[in-house]
């Protein structure tokens, strides 16, 4: 039994806000790509409110979605054997009534992302299913962001023998192509396994490392330098 709903959202949100606070940020953004019914955004708001009880930082939350359900797959890279046009249609007005402070950006992500002008991005949840849509969503990193951005990718680990995710289709292909084209890199979240005992989400956690960010080298470890020396 999980102590909280969607710990795979709560964990990266918590540590992204800790990092932002350590770096001296007063306000940051958390973004979800692929909102559908909105349970994810509602959950993000819950985690933010709980974390703000101990971390004094302002948080903006944004949800990107086309609203009308999945578009037609572009080609094999969008995994048309798994996804169909029209899946995950949103009831926009119903969702708005459930949200406390999140903002919806409805439309094709390649257009709405250009209009994004929120606070620096600290954490991103990627759940657009398609390769093509994920490619467009990764342009969020052209916007102001923390030197390291915690990311959750929903469709990189299969739950059955149908999806068969691989490096040449879907979100994984979008990640690989992004890394080939940029100096900043999206990397697997490398953490010691005991932090994730009895969890199934470690393989979906990534971190965007912007090596050229002016704050990438700013010290955020414990003052005694022992923060990562857990085996001593």
SSE blueprint and pairings:
Elements: H1 7-23, E1 27-33, H2 39-51, E2 58-65, H3 92-98, E3 103-106, H4 109-115, E4 121-126, H5 131-137, E5 145-153, H6 170-181, E6 185-188, E7 205-209
Helix pairs in contact: 1-2, 5-6
Characterise the protein shown here.
This protein has six helices and seven strands; from the N terminus they run H-E-H-E-H-E-H-E-H-E-H-E-E. It has a seven-stranded mixed beta sheet, with helices on both faces. The radius of gyration is 17 Å and the shape is globular. Helix 1 (7-23) packs across helix 2 and helix 5 (131-137) crosses helix 6 (170-181). It starts with 6 loop residues before the first helix and ends in a 23-residue tail after the last strand. It has helices at residues 7-23, 39-51, 92-98, 109-115, 131-137, 170-181, and strands at 27-33, 58-65, 103-106, 121-126, 145-153, 185-188, 205-209. It has one domain (7-209): Rossmann fold. 27% of the residues lie in helices and 19% in strands. By secondary structure, it is an alpha/beta fold.
